[in-house]
Amino acid sequence: MKHSYVFNGDADGLCALQQLRLASPRAAGRDETLVTGVKRDIALLDRVAATAGDAATVLDISLDVNRAALDKLLAAGVTVRYFDHHFAGEIPAHGGLDAHIDLSPTVCTSLLVDRFLDGLFRPWAIVGAFGDSLTAEARALCEAAGIAADAAGRLQELGVAINYNAYGEVIADLHVPPAELAEEMLRHPDPLRFAAESPTFARLAAGYRDDMERARRLEPARQAPGALMFVLPDAAWARRASGTLANDVAKAHGGSAIAIVSPKSDGGYLVSVRVPRDSAISAEAFCRRFPTGGGRKTAAGINHLPSAELDAFAAAFERQFTAETTT
Asked: What are the structural domains, with CATH classification, of the chain?
């Protein structure tokens, strides 16, 4: 039997994968395949080559985006277990699908897997939650589990570094390819040991610090009450930094919506949007106005914004979120 693990290459996808693989070590005779990519590469199910009797576990990618490929796999007799917290649309009613989907803003895929496994590898779930910017939820789990403050800080550092690594336009932009990182993580059931012993983590942490130092020197390209927009330079470090910069700026400007716009090598822009939790309109709803937009309530993006539409996007962004602060 072939088992395909299909997962987002960010911290949430990787930590969800880590928990499930630790809970189910590779069985003799089972062929495992990892299917992943950069954070924005979420149309992954159509890359799965599977036939009747095979299985797929899908983690942290929108069911709605992968609907056609999912239907095809189910029709072929492939069993699919699906964990996610992004917009799903209608969930197929099929005996071969085991769906664990929750769109609540206080959960992520790692926490859904933690729930499924009854907390069996909770420290890795905490890493995933920290990486997915669910800081309050992660800290609450640390406190409930009796994890000391210094260890909790280390788990947060680990989650941020793993999540940061997924940002980029192509795999070559990343410090470590996600599939390679998954295999390195699997050798460490304890995330604190991974952080202490793995040269891969040291590489991630150093790269993150260097890139963030460059990013912090940037000034907003446009600024209005309740809405800030940054336009990054066309460089690999900037493509890596875009998502984490969005989170950092959102934390520093808690009452404002944030847009981070990054040039793409083939033209156009990649956009990351963050909005406050109490925003009247979600980041996902705003980004879905654009053909390649999607995400979740507080964090979303646009995979391709044509260059000619940048000014129109900026105006719509300011109009939407500046209006919120004046109503």
From this structure: 2-208 (3.90.1640), 222-326 (3.10.310.30)
